[in-house]
User: Fold these one by one.
Assistant:
Number 1:
Amino acid sequence: MATLPKIYADLDLTFNRTPGTGDVALRYNDQAVIASVRNLLLTNFYERPFQPDLGSNIDAILFEPATELSANMLDTEIRNVIGNYEPRAQIDKLVVQLNPDQETFTVFLQFFVGNNTAPTAVNLILQRSR
Amino acid sequence: MASNTNIQVANLDFGDIKKNFITYLQSQDTFKDYNFSGSAMSTLLDVLAYNTQYNAYYLNMVANEMFLDSALQRSSVVSHAKLMNYVPKSPIGAVAQINVAFNGVTTSTFSIPKYTNFMSESVNGVNYNYVTTDYSTVSVANNMASFTSVELKQGTVETYTFTVNSTTNPSYIYEIPDQNIDATTLVVTVQESSSNNSYQVYSPTTNYLALGPTDTVYFLQEAVNGNYQIYFGDGVLGKQLSDGNIVVVTYISTTGSAGGLANNFVLMDNIGSYTSVSVSTTGGSPATQGTDKETISSIKFQAPKAFAAQGRAVSKNDYITAIQQNNLGIPFDAVSVWGGEENNPPIYGQVFVSLKPSGAYDLTATQKQLILEQVIKPISVVTVEPTIIDPDYTYIQVNANVLYQQSQTTLTPSTMQTGIQNAIYGYSANNLNTFNSTFNSYELLSSINNFDPSIISSDFNINVQKKFYPTLGTVATYTLNFNSPLQRGVFGSGVSSSPAIQVANPANTQIALDGVYIEEIPTSTSSVESISIVTTGYNYAQTPIVTITGDGTGASAYATVVNGAVTAITVANTGIGYTSAIVNITPATGDKGTGASAVATLSGQYGVLRTYYNDTTKGKVVVSNNAGSIDYINGIITLASLNPIGVDNPLGELTITAKPTTTLISSSYNRIISIDPYDPAAISVSVTAKN
């Protein structure tokens, strides 16, 4: 398989070292976009200085009792934040599934990055942290 | 590698700073995702931009505080003022002068100690403490000790002691933990030690030129927290303290302007066992206004001027600054200073100072003397003689008519009336009552019209008034300068006086006439202004007799003869009430002069006043047909030979009212235009509702 050109390049927020060079690790292309999407989903409103609208309201939704309604709200929220702030990701499929016994949601998100015809998939389990 | 040419450093806004970072990153190719909000690069840029903005903001604020003009914190402003040797003024307690009498005193002398407590009447619901500022003693007569003009100052006495310890406080700076200290009352004494009771009184100073190593002085400054600090000399400039000395600071802690304007007081402390005490301000003076701690804006304004004056009074502003800086605890609303050369006629070598005290009309004679001797003379130029003169008040009486749309307001006519009255007082408080002010009809109408949106239109007319205290039982001439041209009166609208006065009946001086008023004689508006020669004539060996005939009275003139011809005729008395006048030139007895003729020019510059009273059967009875004159053009009313026995006013004040020809009235020098807030008739408002 041919190596894709490095269209997108970003720092890895874990700040791990690249083995060998010892430089801060970088992420490329779809990995960079996945990290960005995760960031956006985990950022709350008013968290970033002077940009109150950046991020999603997922924390607040998770605080409510886990119901189908919350699942629906999560779906909307994820579509909004990616639509507004991540132009690189074109959502192909989004499934938010309620796990009533665990009070968690399983999120399956599949999107295209740029002109890449192979979709990128992300699996997340959202659980309230308190 | 990125190029440094893309770095911008002048922006302070978060968004701009972040944009600068992004522009910078565009010139490199290691990182690409800085433009996507969710990227890790974007998060890092946010942190960096926030930090940059935070620092820039902080530095900007620090830079602001570095200059007197832009500093916002009081401590910064005070610090800048300190470089100019300027100590911000503390609050100053109101001062009252009272008379106190003790009955049943059996000793030969009697004293009221310094700092004796009195309590004021309620001012805005609060009774304030006042204390005597000095010790006073009187001789007792008929078992009564009567004190007059005892000075009281608003506040309570506080004392702090500090023991000098050069190890713990090597700078000898002592902070008085009280924001309300009246620094003019500060008394600093230094006791030798706890075992040696001898002490010395230290005095304040801001003048370092004459200081020696043994001078017992202290310096005052405002600390960062707003408290005052005192500190002492270093053994070169002023005496240095030594370890074990005890500094005792006593002062009056005041509420400033809040406790001012009290009138009645009661004694709170026991002086001996005397209970029969009467306290009165009659003959003394009620409390002055009192002032609050100097504001930041005032310090910004005053400090550079005090620095420019350098403790000397040369220019007008030097005098104003010196008086405002060192007002001896007498708060002023305004100060006006002008050179005698500006007077008419000029008085060279004199500087005139006029002061409008807060909460009072004039300074007392003692206050004027104190300011002259202690504030002005020590710093004025040797050859210049400073003089304090009282403000000259001209009062304006406003009669306003207001038309309003009733459907557009919920206000009742009386609320509307009171509100408009207050709006006019507000206009007066903001624009008048000070030196060099202008009564401006446009601004007054704006104040009235802006009171309520329902007001459709308004207009007003004004009278000008002078108020004075005639000396009862003494013949005197009073000259009242309105400083504004006056209208010639017609029946019922000319110059008038109030209240009624009592004068001796000219027909029988043993009988007093009551209810006497002064008014303008309505037809007294023309007089003989000048006489022009038509033909000079000839053969006049002596000065001919000039007579003026007409429908008026009192005009007289005399001729000047040169080489047998009448060259000029001078009006000696302009007379009054002329609508036509004929000049007759009659040769002296036996003189052969003939042929001279002249014409009179009439003018309405002067009018005449009369005194009258209203009799139930005879109607208006004139007491004197010549009670004074009115100079309409210059706005001067002279009351000639006025000799009232009484005035129907508790204070003996007589008001003369006239109508000005213009509503644009301005003041200069010691003149103040005011709408008298204590006169209920100063403003009359009539409102008309339109449905």
Number 2:
Amino acid sequence: MAKINSINNSTGALTVDIASGDPAVQFSINTVAKFKIGVDDDDSDKFKISSGSALGANDFFIITAAGECTLPLTPSFGAQNSANDLNVTGDSTTYTIIADTEIWDNGSDYNNANGVFTAPVTAKYLLCGNVYLDGLAAGHTTVEFKINGSNRNILGNGYTSLTSGVQAPTCTNIVSGILDMDASDVASLEIKVSGSTKVVDVYGSATNFATSFSGFLLS
Amino acid sequence: MAKQNSIGNATGSLTVDPGAAGDSSLQFSISGTPEFVIGVYDTDDSFRISQGNTPAVNDCLIVESTGVQRRPLNPLFAAFRETTLSNVTGSNNTYNISMDGESYDIGGHYSGVTFVAPVTGIYLVVGNIQLQELTTTHQGSFFALLTSNRNFRGNTYNTTINKPAGTMRLVGSCLVDMDAGDNLRSNIRTFGAGTNTVDVYGEATNYYTSISGYLMC
């Protein structure tokens, strides 16, 4: 005979056990299924917390048998610039980098048409960016790379007012940090090269993160 | 009288209460085999999701009474160079950076040069390197984090003017998509000279040359 769900008052443990299928607990309000927690028998016995009435449909928290935790629905994005953007800065023009190819975008909070990430909820976000510059010349003296956020900016590595000029013709700049964002706040990558003419390119690659922007809701 | 485990159909709440000291938990089993247990660990009143049938043995998620959350079994590693590698690049040689020290490696997914993703997910990866013995004959260096799906270009320089000599530090960090079984490693390529005379610096105390990663989601 298959075991049945049981409440053991002597040990304090409540056991959900079935012969096969998903042992689970359903949380509903007025008969509308809101969340379900339990073990997904059809998916390698992973522990899941899912919205709705079924495990495996809208899983937002998963633990594998090895203890690895994933959060498939947590806001997260990664995008790369797929082609070169020519002559966008060099004369102190501030250029907003548009990583136009999304690799992933859980929640659809990143806009690959304008390079802007919009925070879906008030939280702390880990943001990472890099830019590969080409066309730098001897006259360029300043490279400023940053994450421009609604509340504050994060500055990446660069050069400021070098009397000898920056390295030329190429360099890669990096920026990363944890940014406090309110719901609907925005963040984007900006590059500004100064000191000479507008001949500096933002490099792009269809396959790699040569120039990219990514983010993740931390807490 | 102490509360007992109960299902309150009137309030919609399901209460698990041992009625005395002890863990208050909910066990999920399949055909008698305990898979996961969730509940409150009486010792510190933390909420835990654990493998098997005992809280605090194989905890996957711990939410402390202060609200601090930890995932003790989540893949996480940090490896670094304890010793300097001599003459590995300089003549356009691409060198896959091997690490001879590990600070931690939860799950045991990093070995020597490569981290292997245990599950499909988004990973935070961070790397850095200190190059030594650069001379004015060297024109540039490219530091990269490489995965099976795509590569990430870290700090680079490629210059015909203002060539730096001596020591240089390059960094890279990104979120990257990895499928189960995909590889991650870092490499360095310095060019401009005829022979490989550039060193990758390492020391036992600090992370001058390292790579680390964490499964984010």
Number 3:
Amino acid sequence: MLQQQLTGDSLAVANAIDKQQSQLLARANVQGVGIGHKIKGGVDTGTLSLTVFVSHKVDPGLLSDGDKIPKQVDKIPTDVIETGMIFAGGTPQAITPEELGVQTLATRVRPVEGGYSVGHFKITAGTMATAVFDATPYPAIPRAYYMLSNNHVLANSNDARLGDAILQPGPHDGGTFPNDVVARLARFVPIRFDGSCNFVDAAIAEGPFHWLDREIYWIGYVQGVATVDVDQIVQKTGRTTNYTTGRVIAINATVNVNYGGGKVATMCRQLVTTNMSAGGDSGSLLCDMNRNAVGLLFAGSSAVTIHNDIRFVQALLGIRLV
Amino acid sequence: MSHTPTEPTAEGILAVQLKHQGWLMQLPGVVGIGTGQHQGKPCLLLLVTHATAALTEQLPSTLDGYEVRVQETGGPVVIQGTR
């Protein structure tokens, strides 16, 4: 017999669970019960609650009275958390990428949203982060509107001229000149390969207002710009791996990044996350879970993804996201 | 909240990183270094392609009071245009 480790309020919740779990587990969609803090509007209230894990939340009107989770059990508040179906050993029968259809975000779309395939006419393809405008004058009537992505996506790793055509979708995804020109290279931050610090791999291309949408597919509109801390969960939508989430594992990182052809750039003040991308996702906007922009995805390996700090991107390109 | 001078701080760790990253990143297999976190405390996180014994035995376990941890990248870090 294991020694009882719980005390006080936790013990009261545990006792309630002991008494009530079989009738709770018998209800529709319920996958498990446990002790947790009540989460209200995404915020941890600190109040101990009896947490009921359900495969999916449904409108109470669709449930019979016997299947609804009561607001309280033995005077202890309940909290319902959606978990999806729980299986041992990871996801059930993971769908292979081939079955997902050929690169959904690699298609031609107007207006183009963040997450879709774009690229300089000489490159393969990357991702549009979002649409942006000049930092100054502000407030004002913007002189121009731009799409944001990486230097290596919109400016061919420095090997481009201002005014060069940007195709949507990118050339690798069938975009051709002149039919698929969506924007023209407007500014980029040159990347140095001499061992000195680079802070961003970033560029903007000017396009017609009605073709550039600030919305990011599956994420929505950027609400602001924020900083992140280690362990925070972040999200992005990109051309290759679609919508993904990751966890920040390092901030203020200095990373040597391979640009091909033996060229290596030292990137400083970067964000490192768990792997959340693959080739073609370069340029994706990294957001926190409150839709604040935090980074610009540009590189990775099989285990990690590297992002520029979005504050450097804004400052060095002289742009605003919001 | 104030920290005593000996207690590691987030500001302090960046200074420690900048002081040491030059020689650390010269080591073959080390591709990056940043501020990570372990057990609620800031630590130095070294990105290495593969944590071979030959490499890890050259790495310090702490630097100026901060724990040094290793994260494998599985290979070089490359830009992510389509390949």
